[in-house]
Amino acid sequence: MPIKPSVGSRVFDVLNIMLLTVFAMLTVLPFVYVIAGSFATQKELLLRGFILFPTEFTLDAYKYIFSTPTLVKSLLVTIYITVFGTLINIFLTCLMAYPLARRDMDFRKPILMLIVFTMLFSGGMIPTFLVVKQLGMINTYWSLLIPGAISAFNLIIIRNFFQQLPESLEESAKIDGCNDLSVFFRIVLPLSMPAIATFSLFYAVGHWNTYFSAVLYINDNTKWPIQVLLRQFVILASGGIGDSTAMESDYVSPPEQSIKMAVIVVSTLPILLVYPFLQKHFAKGVLLGSVKG
Amino acid sequence: MFPASRAPTLLGRMVRNRWLYFMLLPGLLYFLLFKYWPMYGILIAFKDYQPFLGFWDSPFVGLKHFERLFNDPNFIVLFRNTLVLAMLNILFFFPLPIVIALMLNELRHHLFKRTIQTLVYIPHFMSWVVVVGIAYIFLTTEGGIVNDLLVYFGWEKINFLASNEWFRTIVTAEVIWKETGWGTIIFLAALSGVDPQLYEAARMDGANRLRQLWHITLPAIRSTIIILLILRLGNFLDTGFEQIFLMLNAMNREVGEVFDTYVYSVGISQGQYSFSTAVGLFKSLIGLVLVVVANHLAKRFGEEGIY
After folding, report:
1. Rounded to whole angstroms, how far apart are CA atoms A86 and A149?
2. Predicted ipTM?
3. CB–CB contact A290 B224 (8 Å)
């Protein structure tokens, strides 16, 4: 029998809803302001201050940044790294996770220990840099694709996911003449699509937001991904987005606010557009991670 | 006769599972090359690494670089800055996702809950460059909205981005803005497993909402909180390297330089590979000790721990 909520309980609810609404607003409004500002004229931005709807809607900022070769180039670089890198990530992670999920596999405990240890201790920036250098990856896109190819954390969660699949499925597939490889590709992978989708998003976000490894490994500024360009442009406020040679050295007049905002939007929106489609899988993915294997 | 793989000898099982070993190979190679080889490379912290001599032939110098670090006047500054930022993080950021998750959990309207969740997850997907970029747009003295407001109310402009006083506040606020919403996910997942009958029973006993929160909801996520705290302690000295690196400038280096950024500037920019590796190693070792101690304590108090 439902009990009628008391006055105290109602007050609690109203307060709770108000506070959460304020919190959500504080989270979103800065970005909404940046989006609105990117469509506003410089004059309106200066005169009106905080605007969420520009009265004079203009695409000038976007027209400008897309007319520059550097921005378009670095967007293409980022798309390439994101697509190709995520494929490598998912393929290698799942390929390694599956044998480790099989109960009849020898050595899986010691191998897992080796993997977990890398989460607690690492060689650090300089020794890793020297390895990448020694492998001849400096100034190539491989340096952004390979050194982070498998995340130990994701690997363990995916392994736990594989382990939950019913063993009888694999056994019956084997009776039908599958070997371990075809069981993996034809049964395990198709059954794991929700998990794969979630981790693809996580990996993709990582690649899209790649910044520091590019600073470390890519010296050639024609190969910069978008985030590095964004930093030059918004944080270091060096002008000359249209001219890659003027990037670091010469100080051209600082770019207008609306153009900076447009660059932020362009470098963020693509990855944000993917996320609502995958949102429903997150909680499941995180919950899987808390199940110990 | 099932399971088929219960072959008598290890060799027999390995032959039977040959495809599994084959699948394991690329991953193993990856971990050896990019995780364990750098660990081995740490040895250059005990050498005077010279690129033209190479790893093997560079002379061994023992603890020279560590002595230099501990005698370096920068050491105290680095330690203080790293520690202060880490403390601010645990004090002001760590509890927030728990509080927000508890609040979200009290919502009965499903659609409203979903909407709030969707909104507060968004910043997590932005890069640090974007977050710091937005902070710059808001805080700059040249047309930034915060300074415009200060002027509007008759105060003076504050150079937030190039000052020692504001650096820590802004860095902590950025972390809160970016990660609080996302941080709620794991607690919400833990909360979804609580048996509703517990609440029924508590209501029968006359417990109000706050009492239910205290006696049922909070204990339900206790172990999750502890595990995350241990993980946090393990990364205690990792003060969000990209973020700090992006926020640093000549004007706030005094409070902003931390071990990670120092390793970069001494190592990569100045090419002192051995010394900066020693700095990095010192930091990693403290991190490792912290995890082990925290995990031990958790187990002492009857919690599960992370390993």
Report:
1. 8
2. 0.88
3. yes
